[in-house]
Design a protein that fits this description.
Helix content is 26%, strand content 28%. The chain contains 6 helices and 14 strands. The longest helix has 19 residues.
Amino acid sequence: MKILYIAELVGKAGVYCFKKLINELKKETEADFVIVCADGATGAGGLGMNHAGYLQKLGANVITLGDFCFYKKDLTENIDKTRNILRPANLSKHSPGKGEGVFKTKRGERIAAAVLLGQSSFSRIHAENPIDALEILLTRLKKETPFIIMDFHAQATAEKQTLFAAASGHCTAVIGSHCRVQTADARISGGTALITDAGRTGSALSCGGNDARLRINQYISGIPDWTKEAWDYPQLQGVLIEANATGEAAAITTICRNVG
């Protein structure tokens, strides 16, 4: 099985990159399943319902969210009605939406996807211990399928590495997200594909997909300003994971494509 994970879409540039390249990538990689992190797709922070529907229409089988999961009111009010949009599984049981799901690939195979949120450096949203949640998720999902993909949306690399160690040998892949910078440590450990951060899809010459000047001014003034997205050097990033019949990862390859 081949799973294509598209790194976090940031703003209109991210959606544009996905639109321009997804069909080409699916054909080239022969991907059976497409997971898209869209935590910054709408206005560089959150996901609106219109973009959610559009990404599904373009070819996203599952859409994952992170700390911005409830930033857009229209999605928050309707997320319980959606099947393939996942917010972090380790949020309160009273939170709307769900953090895991079992789906079917284009060939009819069952595959599970889930999202976990880190605890370090998030001040607006608070999650339960992701390692405890990981154990509960794996116990439940292994009864459904050997193919299990985890999106770990976290800030601290130390926290990511710790969860990677806990997950090693117990699922197909754990893909780090949130930092919006693709790391060079893609690897397989105990049959589990790992990468600290899959990167971002959007402007490569920016500060996390946002206009650099505004972000510099924010650090100088202390006043947040996320009003201007960046478009310079649009690029799609992500990873391709190949798994064998038992659900173990056989390969993980990083993807970095410029969009003309």
